[in-house]
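Usage

Read records sequentially. Each one opens with the input sequence:
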Amino acid sequence: YRTNQKEWKPTFPAFAKARKRIETLFSQLCDQFMIIRNYAKDTDGLFTRIVGKISALTILQYINYKNEKPIGRVKYALI
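and closes with the structure output:
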């Protein structure tokens, strides 16, 4: 809920943090990995491309984790 809505209730901080992380990941997948533009011909190709892009994102997060950098900054993980 937003603060100006009728049935507004305060958000549990752990849920808010998790939701922010998930929305950031979706944004990165859409912008940096261009998950919307995939040019797949059939569903198997679509699933293969999506799994490949999610795997790439996971590997970049792991590289950041091992190098003690923020895991959300995948754009510059290999620098």
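Summary fields computed downstream for this record:
- The chain has two helices and no strands.
- Helices lie at 13-31, 43-66.
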